[in-house]
Amino acid sequence: MGGGIRTGRIADMKPSIQRPWRIFLALALVLVVEAEPRPGFSQPAAGRRFAFPRDHGSHPEFALEWWYVTGHLYETNGLRHGFQATFFRRSTPRRTEAAAPATPTFGDDQLHLAHMAFLDGASGHFLHQERLNRDGWDAAASTNLLDVRNGNWSLRHGVGSAGDPGAGAVELRGGVRAEVAWTLSLSPAKPLVVFGTNGVSRKAAEPWASSHYLTFTRLAVTGTLTRDGRPRRVQGEAWMDHEFSSSQLGTGQVGWDWAGIQLNDGREIMAYRMRRADAATDPFSTLAWVDREGAVRHLGPASFRWEAEGRWRSPETGAEYPARVRLTVEDPVTGRPFTLQLIPIQAAQELTGGLGGIAYWEGACRVLDAEGREIGSAFMEMTGYAASLSGRL
User: What is the CATH number of the domain that holds 79?
Assistant: First the structure.
């Protein structure tokens, strides 16, 4: 679910791509979340046989798709930072025979969003930037392998062998305006995971509210972080989601809470709680354990508790988010209840809304056990608190 909402800022749109800008903006206001299937696009199908490296690439037969990378970086002096990079592809409505053809320079059938965020461990400042471009010379996504770009931001996977989903490191180039830049090499430390049942991750009772959900739950990170014109060597760990679908929300759902958790013992947890209008947890919410070897065990909402503790009120949007989260689930190794506390490294990690006007919270967290000992790291996403997502996009 991570990376599920993306908007673009007009300030980042180059003048050369704003023709016709009013139509472009109107299309951009319907970017991500769908509450019903879109005609003319594929739906996730059970039993799909994934083929790599092709399935790391773009799937334009589906209406929506994103590649989402989050992680924790450490400088040689131990200073800790959080980062996020999302590349998003959105199909516009299917062209009719009467529609005008695409221009030679820019395609009209795909929109590309990209979003970068950085939490500065020294100052506590949270920086973010968004871009929106049409398909063309300044933004594209390959259909053959992982190779997506938006301006000078890019995410590229080594070709490797066709049958190996983890072959080759991923190179990420990104940053936030002139304030911070990074070039990172992300090497899979564990096998690729496919979340869901028989290859399909359901989000609601409606069968079309689903996705194909591919994840590297643990990547070793090395590279360079540039701040104040000075490059610094960094290392750390990252999480990478790749989802493609044609709709995400079901009837009555207003938003979701999601977390990607990396435990120090080599295991991971992915959890999402789909929230309904009455604040109830939707029955299609899920928690998945990933063991040390990469095997996945899925659990329904009756098997875990996601509890908000305290509130943080955004001074910019007025939205109130949980200040921290307590997650309780049975540990499959010990068979005993296992309690995690997700503690934001900085409360102010809200994305305040760009072109689409949607605010949501997404940020780096520490993971503590019930006794307060730090046992891992996480990224958490909380949507629908500023306003319901139902009918918004």
Answer: 2.40.370.10
